[in-house]
Amino acid sequence: MHAFIVTGASRGLGYALCQTLLDDGYFVVGIARNAGPALEGLAARHPERLLAVNADLSDAGQAAASVRTALQQLPLPECATITLINNAGVVTPIAQAGHYPADEVVKAVAINVTAPLLATDALLSATGGLPARRRVLNISSGAAAKAYPGWSVYCATKAALDHFSRSAAVEQEGAANPARVVALYPGVVDTDMQSSIRGSDEVQFPQKARFDALKADGALSSPADAARKIVDHLVSPDFGRQSVVDIREL
Ligand SMILES: NC(=O)c1ccc[n+]([C@@H]2O[C@H](COP(=O)([O-])OP(=O)(O)OC[C@H]3O[C@@H](n4cnc5c(N)ncnc54)[C@H](OP(=O)(O)O)[C@@H]3O)[C@@H](O)[C@H]2O)c1
Question: Is 58 a catalytic site residue?
């Protein structure tokens, strides 16, 4: 069995990743705040290979606990591979430093950084003694490497996720059964996150018109196409050779 735990499974890229993985015959545990109702359609098609775990990943305790719950529901000794995809993320607050809503900054750091770090820790600690090959895929963003005015919180959190992935990958090099840890940029994908970018305040986000034009020109990837490319890379022997990858450059 090949098992995949996907956070942010309820919609957008995470939902498409679950759908692609299920269509490919894998076992999936989807995590989101209301994962059960959100995944009902997929569960009806794949009742024996999909589980849902509800968790609010802005709560650090729930981030780690949700991965432990997911693992408890899997027949771990039968798993040839166990993969965690830390996909859940928020682009908000779209605001420049000096104009931050403090509570939203705290929430963004919790969802985009604290949750994937603790989820990864939970996976590695619970599976260290198993023979299964282990993989962690952190869905990052080109914003980790390129500065965008108005996205300073988002850029900082994704840069943190990239460097966590590099550092954890190096830590694993010395392990008995080393996990592969990778951060990946998925490109510009047509999801609710892009809608909220197009709905943002141009004063706070001066590049809004560029994202309006990308949508108008049909330049966004569909979630299904992005998910297909990501899964193909994830299951390829190349996965883990580079700890930060841009799907558009593969
Ligand atoms: N779309 C793009 O163009 C783009 C580009 C680069 C990188 N990315 C990255 O790709 C990933 C997926 O983005 P997307 O575009 O698919 O976003 P999206 O459509 O807004 O979906 C976000 C997902 O994250 C989950 N999530 C948000 N807050 C949560 C919380 N507190 N607890 C649990 N889950 C939570 C949501 O679940 P709920 O149903 O619980 O809200 C949802 O499933 C993100 O990491 C994003 O940064 C996206």
Answer: no
Is residue 125 flagged as an active site residue? no
Q: Looking at ligand 1, which residue's alpha carbon is closest to its atom 29?
A: 57
Query: Which of 99, 60, 75, 108 minimizes the C-alpha distance to 2?
Result: 75
Domain boundaries, given as residue ranges, for the chain? 2-185+223-249
CATH architecture of the domain with range 2-185+223-249: 3-Layer(aba) Sandwich (3.40)
221: annotated active-site residue: no
> Of all atoms in ligand 1, which is nearest to the CA of residue 192?
19
Give residue 13 CA to ligand 1 midpoint distance, Å: 7
Match 């196409």 to its residue by tokens. 225
| pTM confidence score | 0.98
Contact criterion met (CB below 8 Å) for 81 and 191: no
Q: How many CB atoms lie within 10 A of CB 47?
A: 8
Mean pLDDT by 10 residues, the chain (250 residues): 98 98 98 95 95 97 98 95 98 98 98 98 96 98 98 98 98 94 98 98 97 98 98 97 96
What Cα–Cα distance (Å) separates residue 54 from each residue in 29, 157, 239?
10, 23, 29
Q: Which residues line ligand 1 (CB under 6 A)?
A: 8-14, 32-33, 38, 56-58, 87-90, 111, 139, 141, 186, 188-189, 191-194
Residue 226, CA distances (Å) to 127, 184, 196 in order:
29, 11, 19
* Rounded distance between C-alpha atoms, residue 92 and residue 100, angstroms: 10
154 has catalytic annotation: yes
Residue 239: CB atoms within 10 A of its CB come to 17
